[in-house]
Amino acid sequence: MTVTPYRTNIFQDRQELSQLLIKGKQQAIAKDCPQIVSISQEIPPIDPLVVLQAIAKPHQLQFYFEKSVLDAAIVAIDSAISFKTLEKNRFNRSQDFIHSVLANTICYGQVNLPFSGPHFFCSFTFFEDRLPLDAPFPSATIFLPRWQISSYKNQSVLVANIEINTQVNLELILKNLWHDFQLINLSHRCFSRIDRIEQKKLIQQELQNPERFKSSVSSALKLIKENQLSKIVLANAIDVISPHPFNLVNSLDNLRQRHPDCYIFSTSNGKEHNFIGASPERLISIRNHQLVTDALAGSAPRGKTVAEDADFADRLLNSEKERREHQFVLDFITQRLSQLGLIPQHLSTTQLLKLSNIQHLWTPIQAELPIGVHPLEIVEKLHPTPAVAGVPTKIAQAQIRHYEICDRSLYAAPIGWVDYQGNCEFIVGIRSALIECHNLSQTRTNAYRARLYAGAGIVAGSDPNKELAEIQLKLQVLLKALL
């Protein structure tokens, strides 16, 4: 990959932009291979969610990622080039795709800014194989967006990625680029806030067979007593039906306002399915070869008063059952990182992560990333953690497939991005929902579905009724966002 810094605003000079495209085509001819021209430019501060509302189309791949307390958000719209697979070795194949694209990428512009340069947006399903025939997402989706807009501490950066081959019509590309850039500019000038669309009353809300869930918990506890398992995470879902399409941007705006301490995310398949959520769980974050991850397991409600909240926290910190569940996750992560040659470090005392409606046992873990280790190698090594699967992992996964009614799809799976320098941010897709933007059937008009997911960790001492109550508490996060 070649990098050419520019200080001037390339998108304000049509002739300069044309020259960069011509250079890209010349390179494509010389190498006899399509090239990516990637242009990064600072723009006036803008809310990426506003841009998503203004220019994204339902048939395009899209990605949204925000954590309000860090004052950071990024949106990716449409695909310059993408990779999808249903085959095994999906993480290795995804790495190969990223490497091959970067080997044929030319970067221009202000590449030293936060979130500048090419970023690859990634989603992986929880299970790699045996996906249902009607699965909304393949086992891996990686795409380099045509447009990427970020906001970090009141500084916004626009990145355009253009694929150029030997036969491309540069005039048409230039025309479309110029048109889209004007729309982005217009969204900055005309949209200072999210346009709210009133959501109509939901007409159906059902937890999928709660009695079967409690029965599954009881069966899992027998396996734990027989020492076949130490822990298993069982999920359930509710299907919410609406007479009108769910509004993606409204839901994301609701989530970021209600849960500024969580990662707000959305990714689409380009076929009118969006997977959204408010996840408290970071899988990995890498900045300048420094890795941070979290052991997050063991939970309790928040109290209605300061005293009640402190009481819940004290019970959580002193619960043998919850601390055992947390230790499974901590041991797993440190062992897996060590297997990759990393030296994980963490405090000896467990902390509390307090969210708006729930609190968790939390241990942040840090490590320096060795040269030659790709972020997706770490993602593969860590997925799935005991926080979303169980111990031992393979046995827990087999039992999850046996007990759970619905396919997990992207639920509890890695979702995030990798940039051209090896920086990345991946979360675990929990507290999430699959939103379908088309009618459920040809015979049932005006019926749109959102499937909301949540799970609970089952260890020795778990109680089926309490685990069901924990799931219902977690589901409220998404349900309130849809209303």
Automatic annotation (TrEMBL):
InterPro entries: ADC_synthase (IPR005801), Chorismate_C (IPR015890), IsoChor_synthase (IPR004561)
SUPFAM superfamilies listed in its UniProt record: ADC synthase (SSF56322)
Domain Chorismate-utilising enzyme C-terminal: from-to ranges: 210-474
MF terms (GO), sorted A to Z: isochorismate synthase activity
Reaction catalysed by this enzyme: chorismate = isochorismate
Record-linked Pfam families: Chorismate_bind
Domain of life: Bacteria
UniProt keywords, alphabetically: Isomerase
Family from the record: Belongs to the isochorismate synthase family.
Protein name listed in UniProt: isochorismate synthase
Organism of derivation: Limnofasciculus baicalensis BBK-W-15
